[in-house]
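Hey, sorry to bother you again with one of my protein questions. There's a protein on my desk that I can't quite get my head around. No rush at all, and the record is pasted right below.
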Amino acid sequence: MTKKGEFDIYSWILSPEIRKAWKKEPPLPLLEQAAIIYQAYRAVEDKLRAISILYERAETEEEKEKLGQAKSFYEEAIRQMKGRDRAAAPGKQNPGEVWQAFCSDYDMAEDSNPRRMDFYEEPHLFYSYEAAWDWAAQYVTIGWESCVFMKWTLEKDGPKEEVECSARRVNDVFCTTHAYIVGFSDFDRGTSHLPYSLPFATGDLVKLEGPVFSRPIFGVWAAEQDGNGIWYNWMGYKEYGESGQKAFLTAMSMGYHWLNAFELSVLDWLRPASKEELPKEQKILGKIAKVISRMRKKKGEKAAYERFWETFSIDPPKCRKK
């Protein structure tokens, strides 16, 4: 954040290559900026401040409606975390609500399954968010660990779930990064297509890396734009499946703000890679990338894209406008 009322949306994109490329594109519309903020690896308090700035800049009715909705969403999420009567007395126990907390390892880089989530602490119950927070902070110590908090209010007809939020370490600070409110209509959760292409060509070697991964996930890039201007991006990689199963080649979608699993953003963790970085058991990806890149240069993007799907899937996605 800079001065009051000012902020740089590109600073919310952690991948330096993507950040640099998108700065050269036309300015991002406000709702596209909101999608980046929603999915970002930042505290919800930072997201509320950023969304509030965008709301002040809204001009169209659609922008005012959706950004107003987003602003209300974060305000309510933060209010729920404070509890019914703890605004003036932080930490006060409220017997009318219960917080369930459970910590997990959501490491996408595990050999057994790149989208694995393991719960390494039994769920605990608390009467306040602060108590749940203090308990979780001692267990969430590295980037690929997180804690989920679920708030239940005790009603006459039984417990009622109110809110769920995820906490993790961002720059070594334990904070809540995402929230979901039961019965509260939020806004785009990063499910929209990316507005611009990413700075990678079909056949390029790429990797997902950062503090949320115990080790990089390497892959081969593929990209195509359909007749409606929508970008379909994919990363072909080597998945190891369950223990004892033979590894196989598959692909995950990279065309949306979020990754296939959990609350991670494509714009944060995607980087270029080199064949020298590939682990021994993944050298095949370097050979595949070389073949597809050569085909792209000789026969064009369409041929390279089709070769990608011949390698990583038997049923390529039907994304072209016929």
Observations:
- The two ends are 44 Å apart (CA to CA).
- Residues 35 and 190 are 5 Å apart (CA to CA).
- Residues 84-90, 112-117 have pLDDT under 50 and may be disordered.
- Helices lie at 16-23, 30-39, 44-57, 61-82, 129-137, 266-269, 283-299, 301-312.
